[in-house]
Prior knowledge:
By secondary structure, this protein is of the alpha/beta class. Helices cover 36% and strands 24% of the residues. Helix 8 (222-229) crosses helix 9 and helix 10 crosses helix 11. GO terms for molecular function: ATP binding; kinase activity; phosphotransferase activity, alcohol group as acceptor. Belongs to the anhydro-N-acetylmuramic acid kinase family.
Amino acid sequence: MNWWRVLGLLSGTSMDGVxxxxxxxxxxGDVLELRPLGSTTLAYPPDLHRAxxxxxxxxxxxxxxxxxxxxxxxxxxxxxxxxxxxxADGRADLVAxxxxxxxxxxxxxRARGTLQIGQPAWIAEATGLxxxxxxxxxxxxxxGHGAPLAGVLDALWLADEPGPGVALNIGGIANITxxxxxxxxxxxxxPGNALIxxxxxxxxxxxxxxxxxxxxxxxxxxxxxxxxxxxxxYRLPPPKSTGKERFNAAYLxxxxxxxxxxxxxxxxxxxxTELTARTVADACRAEGAVRxxxxxxxxxxxxxxATLRRQLDVPVLVSDxxxxxxxxxxxxxxxxLGFLTWHGASGNTPGTTGAAGPRLLGSITPGAxxxxxxxxxxxxxxxxxxxxxxxx
Length: 392
């Protein structure tokens, strides 16, 4: 099969901008080959970033505001896609977009719906390329959580690694994929950077604790940590999913009210960093992980990474060490999902999301011309081989 050049776009729960990665992909029998071509991030303008955060629960979002955000985010994704075309030396075949999650509806421990905004028509208009988007909804309709979808990449990528291994992504929400265990499994462990970023923004005006500097100066408040750990989410059986509709400003304020009194800024950041590391480590231990391969923005926080390593007695690697760039792994996942849909292959791993079975994911928006899709693949890929490429 020929190489296909695909752009992957998404904005995670941190809502700081749009990640874009370009990659060449092809199938060689049942082996899927991926060659990274480069990646970048296009930050949201401050006004749009504030508007997105204001639309999250417990805030209100009218139909008018939702329409406005869907358009503005779509236009920003279109600009990011144009950057992606530049990364791909001016040529691409397909764009895949996971959009910007605005709400993930979970009720009675079941995902009822999910909403990603960023109208794909703007991407198609700006690039002339077909766009695969809305990649989570079909999994939810099939009884799954629609997240984390990283399970399909991780299961292919780590198929030949010793197990059980855990692929960890620390974004706004942290999630794990268990590969080589008794059954395929993936789920959100809880807050990754979400509460850390929120607290940092309150303290410094900048929505991240750069290099974990504040947390490094603080001391963990065990009383606050106990309150935060006493959340029913951590006791739910997987598969499960969550988001900022749960772990948000109101959530943090309620926890602070329960401990009473003032919590020093550095102590608050130290405690929230400990919370993320503890809940991730607890999940990894529960799955019998023999090693953990981490990616996502959280791996650039040395205090968080050191705390996680202290919590675990197994090796914790960064995905770059196995050839997959940690900063662009989710954007490369998006490109992979688009490639699978384009070739008629399922993009979910039912055991990881809880879906009733494998499903073709997403909707396709035509580009400048009629759709000319390849013949559907006969066999699902069983392995992913990452080829040397531009890992920037």
